[in-house]
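Example record for the data management plan.
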Amino acid sequence: MNVVRKMLFVLLATAVTLSGFAEGQKDQKAATSSKTTAGTKTPITFTFFTVDATEDMPFTDPVAKKITELTGVTLKVDRPVAGDQQAIPLMIASGQYPDLIYAKGDLTLLIEAGAVIPLDDLIAKRGKYIKELYGDQIVRLRNSVKDPHIYTVGTYGVKNGIWDTDGCMQIQHAVLKELGYPKIETLDDYANALRAYMKKYPTINGQKTIGLSLLIDTWQWYIDLSNPGNYVIGFPDDGQWIVDQKTLDAQYKFLHPEMYRYYKWLNQLYHEGLLDPESFTQKEDVWKAKIASGRVLGIAYPRWGYGDARTSLIQQGMPERTYAYLPIVADKKYKSPMLKDYGFSGGWGIAISKSCKDPERAFEFLDWYCSEEAQILVNWGLKDVNYVIQNGKRVVPEKEQKWADTDPDYSKKTGVGRWVYPFPQRGTAYIDSTGNYITRTSPETIIKNYLPVEKETLAAYGKKMWIDFFPKPEELGISRHGQVWQYALPPETNAKVAEADEYIKNALVRIIMGKPEDFDKSWAKIVSDLKAMGIEEANKVVSRLIKEKVEMWSKKP
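Corresponding structural encoding:
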């Protein structure tokens, strides 16, 4: 009965939210009496739902205003409430859709419901910049062999430079310096460093020192609990899958015989007091506050997930409490996969719904987004405000760069970088018609923008960049299939994987907190339970999809 009541509450709340889409569309239809033509700047507002937004995103910052000035388009951004995973299914149940939708893996549900329109004809006739951006990679936007239509554009760069990394695991510069910059390559090395520093400094700034702290509250568990498990045994990020590059067969990662190693290590850390006991219950704001206090020695999370806490450390005059990025593996027989070249995977992107008030105008907007003009704007900001031209090169003034480095709200205030994801991206390695990189990221700017403490740590190890610690992309090879986490799986397979994911998340927490002497027995039960749930059937489906995708990509666009 409680479950039923809860579902009714969720449905009612979502219905109210979705009705907002309908009202927004009515308002716009009243304001826009006739269809617009290509190239027009007549004002129009598109409703845009993105499953990844975690906060309200008003389209009012300087970059957003410039986008509206150039295109006439204003976006009314909507998002799930409190990480709700049912937003897309409930949207489909209601039959009411925003104009533009970024659904990630739930794209399949929208396609099967006929909720989004194919873009093939529009691309062929009017997709000047889309064709320019994607080139021969446009085939990777196709949905599947059985349904080869293109429904989305955007989300990830087509031509990316592998010049930067957040590493597999991170540790404070202060720890490395105190310990004489030891070689830290394995999980045991990492634990030894935490152990030695915590023994010497049980408190930092008057608060208890924390060794390793995890964030696994909602979807973050995929990042902070699931992914490191395959990284430390040499497998790259394919979501919940490990893929054999020779056979292209996929396996739900927790069935792999080596996956236990990271979790057995966490079990050891937990019982020794090196792992934050609140790792399994803390919310994101609490976790970030701990990092910003300077007392968390180690994390295993990408920089994009805690950037504001890092900026806070710098603001407070504690740059030594920011992190070095390390290629940690379970033991030296493995190669860290962090610099793996995945190529362009296609997959996720922004779709135009069947309810869109003006699909041609929406397409025109997405096509413009692929242009150099748009890409420079969203990545660099406004000329002579956020960047200047010096000797033909775009340069971020020192004052502006300092603002970007020290203000957690820089992107919100300026719009720089705020409207890059999940829209089309040329990629960090793309050089535009003026000879400049299309984004602010380049090997030169990366090195230039390192903190003094980062340069000190790198110099101590005889390195110039963080990537110098890691096996090079050439050693790791280019992925033949992209990344599986970007695949749109059939709904029944998605449901099976979701069931397995929910089980494994809870099982991992229990096994990490469980008695060390029971670990092996408990891990065997996890594997047995997953097989009993039928996850091996999902292995077959994903393996087939990978092989079909590789075959489809091999054909000329």
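Summary line stored alongside the record: The domain at 169-341+449-551 is CATH 3.40.190.10 (D-Maltodextrin-Binding Protein; domain 2).
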